[in-house]
Specification:
Blueprint (H helix, E strand, L loop, with lengths): L1 H34 L3 H6 L5 E6 L4 E9 L3 E6 L2 E6 L3 E5 L16 H10 L3 E6 L5 E10 L3 E7 L10 E8 L3 E7 L5
Antiparallel strand pairs: 1-2, 1-5, 2-3, 3-4, 4-10, 6-7, 6-10, 7-8, 8-9
Length: 186
């Protein structure tokens, strides 16, 4: 009888140690998996929800998350669409615990989104990365590898030849957000 109790106790200790080791491995795997989640994955988990994004220039955009790609997100803010490069985001509020990886194989870069706006001849407002909020309003004439050419328009007026103020080149790196009317297709 004494031997049965001793072996039973050793078996219980061994099973407890095995369970503890198993739980440690599971916890480590969960930490490794969580470390691979990107900001884009966290934003995709909020698709359709409202978030607030504080950008490098201090501007805050509050809107509904419409689309998230690896480099940018699209917010619906009132009656306008706002394309926000993820590299220009300081913090995001309103995200829940849901995470979602990108579905499908097609990845749309920020340049692809800008080309859509240029193709549609959409009037855009570019918020620039500067100490004081600076903007450029106009139509994207050309999207290069790392810059855009904007045909500037006077503020508050429609696109017409007599409202054009000239062309300006803006590095993509300087853009903090790109705003256009909400009816533009991305």
């Amino acid at each position: 009888m004494r031997w049965d109790g001793l072996f039973g106790d050793l078996d219980a200790q061994w099973h407890a140690a095995e369970q503890q080791d198993f739980e440690l491995r599971i916890n480590e795997l969960a930490r490794v998996e969580a470390a691979q989640v990107s900001l884009a994955d966290a934003l995709r988990g909020a698709l359709g929800g409202k978030v607030g994004a504080v950008l490098r220039n201090g501007v805050v955009h509050h809107g509904q998350v419409q689309r998230v790609e690896g480099q940018w997100m699209l917010l619906l803010e009132g009656g306008r669409s706002v394309v926000v490069p993820l590299a220009k985001v300081l913090r995001v509020s309103g995200l829940g615990p849901a995470r979602a990886s990108q579905q499908g194989r097609v990845r749309h870069s920020l340049a692809a989104a800008l080309r859509i706006l240029a193709r549609n001849r959409a009037v855009v407002v570019l918020e620039l990365d500067s100490i004081q909020p600076a903007t450029v309003r106009g139509v994207l004439d050309q999207v290069g590898a790392d810059f855009v050419v904007v045909q500037q328009l006077a503020d508050g007026v429609a696109r017409a030849r007599d409202n054009q103020l000239g062309r300006v080149v803006v590095p993509v790196e300087a853009m903090v957000s790109i705003m256009s009317s909400a009816d533009n297709e991305f």
